Amino acid sequence: MSDRLNSFFQHDTDIAWEPTEPGVRRKIMAYGPDLMVVRVAFEQGAIGKAHQHPHRQASYVESGVFDVTIDGKTSRLVAGDTFFVPENLVHGVVNVEAGQLIDSFTPMRTEFL
C-alpha cells in the first residue's frame, strides 16, 4: 500500500477488500498524512462495534440503511445521508439493510495500513 501514498489515482477494481468484523469489509481508497478515504461494506445485520479514536471522521451513506450511534445518540441514516464524529467520541453502526459507507478520516488512520 505504501506505493499508493505517492499515487494520484486509485481504481476501485485494483484495491482488495480487507475483512474487519463479521459481515464487514473495507478498502483503503486514498490517503495522505492528513486525510484518508475508506469504503466500508456491511452485510445486512452486521455491526460496526462501538469504538473511539483521536481522528475526526465524516461519513457518507453510499447505499443501505444504518442505525448510527454517536455519543449515545442514535439516528437511522439512508443513502445520501452523512454523519460526523468529533475526535474521541464513542460511535458505532448497526446495518439494517446491506450497504456501504464512505468514511473520511483526518488525520489518516495509520493503523489501517
UniProtKB/TrEMBL annotation:
* InterPro entries tied to this protein: Bacilysin_H2HPP_isomerase (IPR052535), Cupin_2 (IPR013096), KdgF (IPR025499), RmlC-like_jellyroll (IPR014710), RmlC_Cupin_sf (IPR011051)
Q: Which Gene3D superfamilies does the entry mention?
A: Jelly Rolls (2.60.120.10)
Q: Which domain of life is it from?
A: Bacteria
- Pfam families registered for this protein in UniProt: Cupin_2
Residues covered by the Cupin type-2 domain? 39-98
Q: What PANTHER family does UniProt report for this protein, alphabetically?
A: H2HPP ISOMERASE
Q: Output this protein's name.
A: Cupin domain-containing protein
